[in-house]
């Protein structure tokens, strides 16, 4: 070979063999050495492995015609080079299997140390431009598939972790709904019994005390019930395949809110709303909390609430706008927290509503945020991604 | 109203593990002016023994009414109810379920097993005391002709 000319000096025999092997080993061109009349593979480089999609172990010892889908032209060329001992080039070999890939071969004889014919060295060149790219792509694909395996493993373990966390949450929800409610019930009943049994023997202060105890337990019960409803949100299994007409959801919501609307004299309207994938009960929760809040936190003027939708690139953008008291900027993030409230007992509520809204929106892959000017009004925005298969 | 309208003392079984509820239940019965004897069983296993008339319950008298909690230590109120319905002696005993929480399935099962009332344990003394009236109404209805013929509803 030519490397002696390049280095210009003798290379020790073992070193030289190593060097020769390395030259072929990392060539981007697929190379292989075959021996005997059966053209049995004795050597293949990495690029050859990539080309055939097989490992060295699988390839070495097999016939060249088994390793590469060759046509008859190629095999007769191989035989000729082996017989004549003359190097030859063959271009335009078509892959008989796919009829889409073309490659050319350069073949030269390998001679044993005594000068007798031993085999043939083959270098394959892909002549399909597409194929030229795929060598690199192949490599990238192999790497990415290894990476994908790692990622899949990670996703599986993360999923298991999530499942566990979810199960814990369910247990917690049951504890909240049942186990924690029970002692509260006892406190309520027995504080009332106390006051009833000792009527006339206790002073007015005792009544006040029991009143506070009962207020506290009632509030606690409401919190527990809301916490349960929060944990149940997003519990639905599977994809949201149901198509939800949000116009109907709006109607249903305003029906549910009828007492609050009538009492406040609120005007609640909506633009034409789209149909989205989801679960009906969740969208009712979402609408009811947002519209309910818009009415509840009204200013001096009559509450006006407007629900609208706007089509964006690959999502719907919804807005629930009111003319209420508004929210100070420093609270725009925190209001979505569980049991977060900005107002005292004057305005009833537990502070779970917006947390539930956020959970619903995120359950369907959207985002929720607020824009507000104190004294002028508040607009809650949320997005719902359009289903991918939407025509 | 109070006293002994039917001129007899009612036998009532209460399957309940919470002594607080036992106390209030007894009070509710008294409040309704009932003359009664209350047998309290505190766990599911003993409840089953009662329903099957085993052990110390072999000779205990047949109650006019059974009030069962569903969530109990050592077995469920539901299994006690099933065992009662399978018992020749107890199958026609009127039953009220009084529980703190129940799944829709438990409620449906109870209905299928001919339960007269399904009561969620109330938070609030007044509501709890109303249970006494519910019990009284049921006992008065069942006692009228001769002995209980309770396939009502």
List keywords for this structure.
heterodimer, A: 391 residues, alpha+beta, Beta-Lactamase, Heat Shock Protein 90, five-stranded antiparallel β-sheet, five-stranded mixed β-sheet, 12 strands, 48% helix, 20% strand, elongated, B: 153 residues, alpha/beta, Rossmann fold, five-stranded parallel β-sheet, disordered C terminus
CATH topology of the largest domain in chain A: Heat Shock Protein 90
Main β-sheet description of chain B: 5 strands, parallel
How many alpha or pi helices of chain B? Answer: 5
| Biggest β-sheet description of chain A | 5 strands, antiparallel
CATH H level, superfamily name of chain B? Response regulator
Q: Quote the average pLDDT of chain A.
A: 81
What CATH first level of chain B would be assigned?
Alpha Beta
Radius of gyration of chain A: 38 Å
Spatial ordering of strands, largest sheet of chain A: 2-1-5-4-3
According to CATH, the homologous superfamily of the largest domain in chain A is Histidine kinase-like ATPase, C-terminal domain
Order of helices and strands of chain B: EHEHEHEHEH
Structural class of chain A: alpha+beta
- By CATH reckoning, the class of the largest domain in chain A would read Alpha Beta
Whole-number count of domains of chain B: 1
| Rg of chain B, Cα atoms, Å | 14 Å
Distance between the termini of chain B: 26 Å
CATH architectural grouping of the largest domain in chain A: 2-Layer Sandwich
- The poorly predicted ranges of chain A are 1-9
Q: Give me the side-by-side strand order of the main sheet of chain B.
A: 2-1-3-4-5
Structural class of chain B: alpha/beta
| Count of discrete alpha- or pi-helical segments spanning 4 or more residues of chain A | 13
